[in-house]
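Revision sheet: structure tokens.
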Amino acid sequence: MSKVTPATRALTAAGVAFTVHSYDYDPDAESIGLQAASALGEDPARVLKTLMAKVDGKPVCVVVPSDQEVSMKKLAAAAGGKSAQMMKPPEAERVTGYKVGGISPFGQRKQVGTVIEQSALAHELVYLNGGQRGLQVRLKPADVRGVLKAVVADVLA
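Predicted:
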């Protein structure tokens, strides 16, 4: 497994301090984020999942704790739209350039607007997908927000 991905290159280029963590990815896991948290021995609230959605038809990246669900109504409001829906996996892969299970908010094919769940900022360090299945990056949540120019909002169901 390569530890250099478009995500890690984007973080390095942004001058952000991060560490890379590998784990055994389980393609049959019911929840990829929860499986990553378990494999890393971390609190699921600190292991953030990257989801791709559409708000008023436009792609949006949303980052939330792996043990939480997104409210489409709150996401739409946070992104300045009227309605939101989850993106289908093939479309998410096409938009981001990553495979489902390895989608990172960093280094996507075309950077889209990002919304980060406000509770994620309460942690000293958080984990996010590093751009491939079984790879996580650990960094400060303020750096996540800064690099992605993310909107911070309550988007939990």
